[in-house]
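Researcher: Checking consistency across runs. Here is YggT family protein again:
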Amino acid sequence: MNYLTNAGGLIINFIFGAAVALFVLRLLAEAWRADFQNPICQFIYRYTNPVLRPLRKVLPNWRRLSTSALVVAWLIECLKVVLLIAIMGFIPNPVGVLVMGVAELLDFVLLLYIVLIVVWSLMSMLSTDRYHPVARLVTSITEPLLRPLRGRMVLGGLDFSPAVVLLLLTLVRLLVAQPLSDIGQRLMLGL
C-alpha cells in the first residue's frame, strides 16, 4: 500500500465509522429505552430519523430492536468494505462483502460496548454528575450488560463485574468477530 491509499483508508474508516456509530447508538438507545429528553439522544434521533422513518414502513421494529437502524448500519459497513477494497485495486466478491459487513458491524458494537463500559467505570470512580447527559446515556446502554453480574463479583469491597463483562466482550471479539472477518476476507478475495 502506498501513502495515499493509507490516507484514503483512514478517511473512509473515520467517515463511515462516525455514520455507523450514529445508527448503532440509535439502535442501542431504543433497545435499552434511553431517556428521549437527553440532548444526546435528541441529536441522535434528529439525524437518523430522515433515513430511518421511510425504512420503518418496510422494516418494522422487532420487539425493542430497530431493524431499520441495524440494516442501515450493516449497509454502511458493507459500503465501507467495498470502498476500502476498491482503493486497494481489487474487485470484491459480493458474498464476501456481506459477510465482512456483518463481521465489521459485530466488531464495532463489541468495541463500542468495551469503550462505554470503560467510560462508565471511570465515571463511577470519579463520581461525576449522574444526571449529566453523557452519564445518563452511557448508564442506560451499559446497565443491561452489567446488571446480571453486579454484586456477584465483589472482592474486598470492589465490584469486578465490569472487568468480567469486558473480558467476555473481548473473548467474543476474538472468538466470533475475528473468525467471521477471516471468513469474509477469504470469500471476498476469492481465496
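Researcher: Does this match what you'd expect to see?
Model: One thing to look at in this run: The chain has one domain: 3-189.
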